[in-house]
Design brief:
This protein is of the alpha+beta class. The protein has 4 helices and 7 strands. 25% of the residues lie in helices and 24% in strands. A hairpin with a 5-residue loop joins strand 6 and strand 7. The longest helix is centred in the C-terminal third of the chain and has 17 residues. It is globular, with a radius of gyration of 16 Å.
């Protein structure tokens, strides 16, 4: 996981966005720069489960990186989870997003239950710790600005 904002989304994907291979890096950097991307890390053995979850419109935990993706630290071991995917926020339904502040260990795989009717319930104090998506975006921008002041911030160029 990344040490930044935590977000859980209902991944109701819009029609696929097709990026031309020669433009894909530029598109990815643009999404990161404008805070219009989410990052989902996945363990090496869990790719098929992730694809199935995305196609079945289930919920998945993602990270909202700061503008430009700078100042992020990856937790875990690279040999177990060396990659992830970048999701364009515009292709997702964020209306039912559940958000927590940076560094909060939501552990939604243990603390989020969805009933047959689609109602979401949270246990272990997770509901009380939630923040709004707007607060999450502002916090990411503030964190990047603070990191830059300390000389550790990044941001993408490209």
């Amino acid at each position: 996981f990344f040490e930044t904002e935590s977000i859980t989304l209902a991944s109701k994907l819009a029609p696929p966005l097709v990026a031309m291979p020669e433009r894909s890096h530029r598109n990815a950097f643009g999404l990161l720069r404008s805070q219009d991307a989410l990052i989902k890390t996945v363990k090496n053995d869990d790719w098929l489960s992730l694809v199935f979850d995305l196609l079945s419109h289930s919920r998945s935990s993602c990270t909202l990186p700061p503008p430009g993706g700078g100042g992020m630290r990856l937790f875990g071991r690279v040999e177990e989870g060396c990659a992830g995917i970048l999701l364009a926020r515009g292709a997702l339904d964020e209306s039912a997003a559940l958000c927590w502040p940076s560094g909060y260990n939501a552990k939604t795989e243990h603390h989020l239950t969805i009933s047959r009717s689609g109602a979401v319930s949270l246990s272990g104090g997770r509901d009380a710790a939630r923040v709004s998506l707007a607060d999450l975006e502002a916090s990411a921008r503030e964190g990047l600005a603070a990191a830059r002041r300390r000389g550790r911030g990044g941001g993408s160029s490209g």
